[in-house]
Write a structure and sequence with these properties.
Blueprint (H helix, E strand, L loop, with lengths): L2 H15 L3 E7 L5 E7 L3 H6 L2 E4 L26 E6 L5 E3 L6 E8 L8 H14 L2 E14 L3 H5 L18 H6 L1 H13 L4 E7 L3 E6 L2 E2 H20 L4 E3 L13 E9 L18 H21 L21 E3 L6 E4 L7 E4 L8 H18 L26 H9 L2 H7 L1 H19 L4 H7 L3
Parallel strand pairs: 1-6, 13-14
Antiparallel strand pairs: 1-2, 3-4, 4-6, 5-6, 7-9, 7-10, 7-11, 7-12, 8-9, 12-15, 14-15
Helix pairs in contact: 3-9, 6-7, 8-9, 8-10, 10-12, 11-12
């Protein structure tokens, strides 16, 4: 269905439902969905010219605190509205809504498009399309099921947070059936919002993991970001808080977000990653894509590992890749290549945390992989055995410290070509603000360790 037909279908559905207002919104750089309920009469204009939406949320942190270094917080901009152009293909049902409601996603038009994550991803997908490829894939998202509310969490130390103990029993059939009312609500909410799920199960050390079904590029990121919001809605109905914080406690594993990415030829829709005649089953395109990931993602690392807390996952024995390596069906490396057939050939990017903005993380991977194809970058030999035993060659490893990652993105000519100076400057400024804020925090550990000096 072409864009015009999708717009007509969306307007007709709104009319048939007799809805007075529609949830309309966009994702900020933290992956948070920001919405308003707009009068249905404005929807036609929303598809052609956009709806007014103040861009200030682009300049607030994960906890909704104002980030004064962000360009959208500067008074000289006048805090003016931007225009969010609605995407008819994004139309969704609103879970648990009575009467049934609808959600439309969109992206800012220029100049606010510079910092709009959906716009940034759309630009990278368009560049990939110019090379003759479409992206198809899905996220795996890990989250912690907490017996808390946002209010109770705000007043507790990390070790005081109550967790759902059932999720400490990995893949347990008994625990899954026992907790079926909650898990079924998660699945029901996702089905209502048209978020296709392949699997849902308790994961290692207290996490709930979902594998989202493969989708075209933009919808792949939309589904990942929407899943976090929808799962939180389901949790609230059961007195629970789903947390996608990268790492909550020192004695717990962190929450990851694996990106499974495949490319298809636009003209044939055949896999661009599989080659049955190749010794490893991977095409030249797949090798060059991986080569681009290895070459450029160290510079874009902050877009996938975006917060100060994110870097607490990068410790030994936490099942997080620590080296800039790839391998065939190897879960100890950063880039796991699957080569068992054309329908499943893909590259799994394994190091991002669940706190990433899915649109920015995917845009970074596309930008790096696309450059690898364009520049015919050959990757190093694949790792066999433990990737944790591999040391990166000097200058090729990931920046595994927050401040180092900020510096790498700030100084990356590649990042500035792909995302623009304005975006990079704002994103870097936001993250430096996190560092400045944390520098003024005295932790419980410091009190215990140094309090009697």
């Amino acid at each position: 269905m072409n864009e015009g037909s999708m717009v007509e279908a969306a307007l007709l559905l709104i009319q048939e439902r007799g809805l007075s207002h529609i949830h309309c919104g966009w994702f900020d750089s933290n992956g948070t969905l920001r919405t308003k309920k707009y009068a249905a009469g404005h929807m036609k204009k929303g598809f052609t010219a956009g709806i007014p939406f103040i861009a200030i949320p682009s300049g607030i942190g994960p906890d909704d605190e104002i980030v004064p270094t962000n360009g959208y917080m500067q008074p000289e901009r006048g805090f003016a509205n931007g225009a969010v152009l609605l995407d008819a293909a994004s139309l969704r049902e609103v879970p648990f809504s009575d009467p049934p409601g609808l959600l439309l996603l969109g992206q800012f038009r220029p100049p606010e498009a510079d910092d709009c994550v959906r716009s940034r991803l759309a630009a990278e997908l368009a560049r990939l399309s110019e090379l003759g490829f479409d992206l198809f894939g899905g996220f795996e998202m890990e989250g912690a099921v907490l017996l808390e509310t946002p209010d109770s969490m705000a007043s507790k130390r990390a070790e005081e947070v109550a967790e759902k103990t059932a999720y400490s029993n990995t893949f347990s059939f008994v625990e899954q059936v026992d907790d079926d009312p909650f898990l079924s609500d998660v699945l029901h909410a996702c089905a209502q919002a048209d978020i296709a799920i392949d699997t849902l199960h308790p994961e290692y050390l207290g996490m709930l993991e979902v594998a989202l079904a493969p989708q075209p590029g933009m919808r792949m990121a939309d589904n990942a970001a929407l899943y976090r919001a929808v799962a939180k809605l389901a949790g609230r109905r059961h007195g629970r808080l789903l947390s996608f914080m990268a790492r909550r406690r020192g004695d717990q594993q962190g929450c990851g977000a694996h990106m499974n990415i495949s490319l298809r030829h636009r003209d044939t829709e055949d896999s661009a990653f599989f080659d049955a005649d190749a010794s490893d089953g991977l095409s030249v395109t797949a090798h060059h894509f991986i080569g681009g990931l290895i070459r450029y993602l160290p510079e874009l690392f902050l877009l996938m590992v975006p917060n100060l807390n994110s870097f607490k996952r990068f410790r030994p024995n936490l099942f997080t890749p620590l080296s800039n390596t790839w391998g065939i069906d190897n879960k100890s490396v950063a880039f796991r290549a699957i080569n068992v057939g054309a329908s499943s050939a893909r590259v799994e990017v394994r190091f991002p945390g669940a706190d990433l903005c899915p649109h920015l993380g995917l845009a970074a991977a596309v930008a790096a992989g696309r450059a690898g194809i364009q520049e015919a970058i050959e990757p190093p030999p694949p790792v066999t055995g433990s990737g944790w035993d591999v040391e990166d060659a000097p200058g090729t490893g990931f920046p595994l410290g927050f401040e180092d990652a900020i510096h790498r993105l700030d100084g990356s000519a590649f990042a500035r070509r792909a995302f623009g100076d304005g975006f990079v400057d704002n994103f870097v400024g936001d993250r430096r603000w996190q560092l400045e804020q944390f520098a003024n925090v005295v932790t419980d550990w410091e009190i215990r360790t140094f309090g009697n000096l």
